[in-house]
Amino acid sequence: EMASAPAHHLRVRVLLVVLCAVSASASASFPWPWKRSGHDYRDALAKCILFFEGQRSGRLPADQRAAWRGDSGVSDGRAAGAGVDLEGGYYDAGDNVKFGFPMAFTTTMLSWSVLEFGDDMPREERRHAADAVRWGTDYLLKTLAHPGVIFMQVGDPWKDHECWERPEDMDTERTVYNVSAGRPGSEVAGETAAALAAASMVFRDGDREYAELLLDSAKKAFEFADSHRGAYSDDMDLRAGGCPFYCDFNGYQDELLWGAAWLRRASGDDTFREYIQNNGKTLGAEDSINEFGWDNKHAGLNVLISKEFIEGEALSMQSYKESADSFICTLIPESSSPHIQYTPGGMIYKPGGSNMQHVTSISFLLLTYAKYLTKSSHTVNCGDISVGPDTLRLQAKKQV
Asked: Which residues form the Glycoside hydrolase family domain (predicted)?
């Protein structure tokens, strides 16, 4: 229950990411605009990207389209006595708090969406999507700018949640929280590494210098996460600020593998693949956890890593393909294996708060895995039935 409030906030952003994905992937089969059953997915794509402009913190650019928003949080980091520049980034839905852990995950997911489906987006929307990614990464770079610490949050969430006001008018405390060697936060650092690595590929063709900066910074964030292992929720001061809103319920181990997987994809460096192979078992890669979201990366990790195996580039990663297949089979009602619960109307249902965060993130993985399978001869063996990419796309479309 404690996780339900922030999960509601975050699910809005994840929902928009999956709408971007389903909108863009639709163009592979239908010309723009793709409009079926009364749903204009091109319009949804445009609106979902525009949403992020309404969440911007800091000094807004001249080409800001959400003109009803003004500058806010321009002295973040400095006014709180921390003496650092933490202007920018995104507010967390209706809050005026900048939570670094879920913000980094949002940036990772936006980047992944652009990487997989950006070529199918209209040019202008692809540019707006990249701008949304950059607004996140510009801020994340600032959180890494000072040696020995990573800034993970701006704003006192308890006082902020008691006062509903526009960010332009906020007068609540802009408390700054950071992780360090003495009070580690591997999940924050690992997700930041994943976000910067994924984003580096978004900008590789258009701004190579910026892409290299992102990748270098991602490596530093990952080294920090791995060298100083621990969860920020184990520290009393950080727990007071981050919990129960975005407490690390699942542990930091999955973020280490997640960060390594994105660094492997972005850099092609075998070192990160070896890291996954050498540390996978101890970090829980073999755990049967069929979830994906801001706190739990397991299912997404399996889908991401399986790409190399499906493409025949890393046969040693077969176990991740098998885990991804197992996850997919839980989503197929006709499968003979145990599968996820559905509502009478056919929506994915997982007991607990904020069900839509599961629906949206799982739908994204369905679309992405379908894309990987399309480029190969692989299918998913779910006991009595064999499942192909068309089935996965149809399942994702039903959820959206």
From this structure: 41-384
